[in-house]
Amino acid sequence: MGVPPIAGSVARTACQAGIVRLSEPRSLSPTESAIVDALLAPDFDGASELRAQSAQTQVVGRCDCGCPTIDLAVTGNAPAAMHNASGPTPFEGIASDAQGQPIGDILLFVVDGYLSSLEYVSHAEPPPSDWPAAARVSLLGPLR
Ligand SMILES: [Zn+2]
């Protein structure tokens, strides 16, 4: 099932594996939280709403392929963002290795105006099992 793209952007997904729902929702890890914060740091339409949502977001699923991709659910009452649009946020993260070589892309997806997933698109096979340190993530964008 794909995420409908916002007009003018292309929705990409991390991999073809399915999402496995967690038996118990969990909080974002410090690294996940730092990456989400970084992707929402620039100002764009909906950024303030998404920042408010990120403080009320839990992890409800993970990718079955072993990559760090996670499904998110906003649990509080933060307002919807981006006119209830669905698609990737305008800034994506570029993960680099210790030598500064790009090794993956990180995309934050919104569905109906709410944070929905944080996806890792690996350039390496097999993909890493964990997120890069936030310090190794730089921003690319705005992409639309
Ligand atoms: Zn995966």
Which structural traits does this protein have?
binds zinc ion; mainly beta; 144 residues; 35% strand; 8 strands
Sheet bearing the most strands, described?
8 strands, antiparallel
- Count of distinct strands: 8
| Beta strand % | 35-45%
- As an assembly, this protein is single chain
Count of discrete alpha- or pi-helical segments spanning 4 or more residues: 2
Can you tell me the overall shape?
Answer: globular
How many domains? The number is 1
Mean pLDDT: 89
User: How large is the radius of gyration?
Assistant: 14 Å
Residue windows where pLDDT falls under 50 for at least 5 positions: 1-13
Distance between the termini: 23 Å
Summarize, please:
This protein is mainly beta and 144 residues long.
Protein topology:
Blueprint: E1 19-27, H1 30-39, H2 47-54, E2 57-63, E3 70-74, E4 87-88, E5 92-96, E6 102-111, E7 114-122, E8 137-140
Antiparallel strand pairs: 1-2, 2-3, 3-7, 4-6, 5-6, 5-8, 6-7
Detailed description of the structure:
The protein is mainly beta and 144 residues long. The chain has one domain (19-140). The protein is built from 2 helices and 8 strands; from the N terminus they run E-H-H-E-E-E-E-E-E-E. It has helices spanning 30-39, 47-54, and strands at residues 19-27, 57-63, 70-74, 87-88, 92-96, 102-111, 114-122, 137-140. Strands 1, 2, 3, 4, 5, 6, 7 and 8 form an 8-stranded antiparallel beta sheet that branches. A hairpin with a 2-residue loop joins strand 6 and strand 7. The longest helix is centred in the first third of the chain and has 10 residues, at 30-39. It is globular and about 40 Å long. Zinc ion binds next to loops.
